[in-house]
User: Fold this.
Amino acid sequence: MTTPVSRRSRLHRKEHRAALAFVAAPVIGFLAFIGYPLVFSLYTSFTSWNGLSAPVPNGLDNFVEMMGDRYFWQSLGNTVFYMIGIPIGLVISLLLALALNRRMRGLTFFRTVYYVPVVSSLAAVAILWQWAYNGDFGLVNQVLAIFGIDGPNWLQNASTAKPAIIIMAVWKGIGYSMLLYLAALQSVPSHLYEAASLDGAGPLAKFRYITIPMLSPVTFFLVVTNIIGGAQIFIEINIMTPTGGPEFSTASIVWYIWQKAFNYMQMGYATAMALVLGLMVFIVTAVQFQINRRFQFAID
Amino acid sequence: MKSRILAVAGVTALAATALAGCAGGAAAGDDSTLTFMFRGGDAEKEAYTAAIEAFEQAHEGVDVKIIMTTADEYATKLKAAITGKQVPDVFYIDPGSVQSFVGSGVIADITDAVESSDAIDLDNVWAYGLDSYRFDGTTQGKGAIYALPKDIGPFSFGYNKTMFEEAGIPLPDPDVPYTWDEFIDVSKQLTTDLDGDGKLDQWGTGLNVTWNLQAFVWSNGGDWLNEDRTKVTVNEPEFAEALQYFADMQNVHGVTPSAGDAQTLDTYQRWMQGQIGFFPVGPWDVPTYQDLDFEWDLIPYPAGSTGKSATWTGTLGIAVSASSAAPDLAAELAMYLSVDRDAQQALVDAGVQIPNLVDMANEWVSSSTLPPANKQEFLDIAEDYGRALPANNTYSAEWYDELFKNIQPVLDGEQTAQEYLDEVQPRMQELLDKANAQAELG
Assistant:
């Protein structure tokens, strides 16, 4: 209501104050726990700080060092490599959702089974998979041995360590994507399918021209959130390959930041890297939103 | 009106309790409450809880709050506590952190408290343990005392006695180390295919480079750093020779499980199953090894060109916070945990460590009947040929870790040791320079 201020009633102002009081709590929370640390880390990224005593400003040194730091680029490359798991995961979960989107016996059982990894503790899952990947006794190699394949020492081999972690991450996440796709599939209006059948469309055509476009909001959401989450992958690496993997092949950027900050007493430098990471993720997400605006498909 | 007042009162009370939760921590640490932060397994928890109860009884009105974390979380939690200005009064410290903590004023100088106390006789505590926590502002290893040793862990070399007897090979001499050639020779004899299926199922050894390279490098006359710790010397011939010998064990002589089979964890499992002839043994391994179904004992590490064995001795210290509200009491607690005889006995019985006190250790060697038979080896390392891990005496371990990051190709035989070391030395030097510069900044 845009009444001129002078004519606003006492009630209006009282209500206004009550509203401000209610809003104050989350706003103060935001300022204290997100705003202040953000500003503080902006400041510390231009300092040299060992985490114990006061930060010492050092201009752009951190950023210059970062550009020449081979481990920074390598961990960034590793992090981008991990994102290959995102399309793989989405495809698998879509197929699962299609398979489970029908009336069949044991439906609830299957849905639960696929969702259990999602709610399991990531640390526990990582430890489990670390053992499964063991070169000699691990479950994965035992299964491969049934098919006569001699499995590698997954987590100690520079060329298989990253795929191993991707497989584990995909396994953990498909339940969640599957559930979202299931819900979205069930909300696709059936009259669209009927109309398509009347026009003589086969199942593949229906899938391509109706299902996928109608699922695009969910896909967009999953891609955006998975990229943001994937850029920050840490726990899996820290538990399964505590030293950053063979020849640093599994270290993600957040893992490297953590190592620099807490193990090597270079919090200023680590904060600078975190800032750069945050900026990259922000830009990627903004680009995605722009792209989506053009290709978005929704029934109004 | 009444409901309004009630509402306001209710909200204020809620807010007060919420904020009190945040601020509560800072008020702790008055004169008679101490916090002790440490990490470890069940055995340590039990032993230390008992020791602290005894301390509380001996000191009227004192309450000690114990904070225990897992081994992985400890460093991060401690740093968080320091940044949050809630430093525990007494806590574990590793020697590699001494310089940074002293420089940032986190830990207190307890030299006076220690030297004037009756509870502790400095001559009866392992010199290696005490010196690890001395710092004079420039060199670690001498100067003021900043922490007392929680323990020292001599990293010794063990062998599978049953395997030797079954193979009919003479047992190694507990006093005279093998030469490198002799060691390869014996290992080759042990590496066989026992059940005739065409695949090797017994090997001479299988060592993890991170923890065993030191023994080979040092006994060959090489080292990571020069005397004043300013130059990285890993590409010198003695070091390269040792690293090459280490890699050759697998690739040239074939006395270890192959690259495809084994990495560290796996050779440890193989040793536990009796498939490996030689494997390192630290005091912390002893309780686990009691349950092995073969006999084992300790020997000195094979010696390189110097003819003398060498190995590293780990250690962990107990430090006192510089911002403690009760510094004298905290120092007393630290001394108590370090040298109290009952606490030491409980820890030794649980197999967690060797005694911190020299006389107690000597007694333990002669009176204990549990394996290993050659416990004296642990003491020899502690007194004689055990050294500090190179990163313990520098500001941070980044330069040291760099060596092991890309060492796998050397161990797989795809790159020679000298080539790799020449490549990695400049990177390590850069990181060491940075660490030393940080040390100056404080």
About this structure: Residues 5-66 of chain A form one domain. The longest strand of chain A covers residues 47-48. The longest helix of chain A spans residues 10-44. Chain A is about 70% helix and 0% strand.
